[in-house]
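Appendix B, Record 12. Input sequence as logged:
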Amino acid sequence: MEEADLIPLFPLRSVVFPGGRLSLQIFEQRYIDLVSHCMRTDTGFGVCLLLKGEELVQPGSQQQVSRVGMYCKIIDWDKLPNGLLGITVEGIRKFTVMESWVADTKLLMGSVRWEGEDFLDQAALPLSEEHDGLVDLLRDLMAHPLIEELGVTMDFTDQRQLGWRLAELLPIPVHQRQQLLEINDTSERLREIENLVVSVMQHNNS
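Logged structural output:
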């Protein structure tokens, strides 16, 4: 991937991080065509948080997406019991949308800049004892059956992966998840996650 690229964008009310997985049901023809193209060419698409509009576009309506998203590739697919196409995607690399528009294919396209942080296969940042509480919390979250089904792998010695997985799995509003994605510094992201954990615990105890 070059410094700037043109990629299709998939507006969703979800936020994906590197190594994170998301299951999707595909039924709109434009996305069926997109999935077919991605599988033939071993390419992916950008998942961006939908800020305005609906995932299923209505005539005359518009979609507004976050400028920071995650390039994802399809790692599994199946025909679901309801007859729809089901796919599982995995986050690869963070990008910033420089410009976006609706193409003749009705797909939202984006000219994107690849970010220098938050991509798969980065060198690990070692954890310290101060992160022990967050590691224990993540182990508990990843033990949930629905999370286990996705088969997400985790290096519990890496600060980056700790931040990515907690940001995905914490029970927080999607806009806060997006804010965590937009942070480029891993230490800053972990500090913000600690603050969010405290807020969630205080809310649950109130």
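The CA atoms of residues 41 and 119 lie 21 Å apart.
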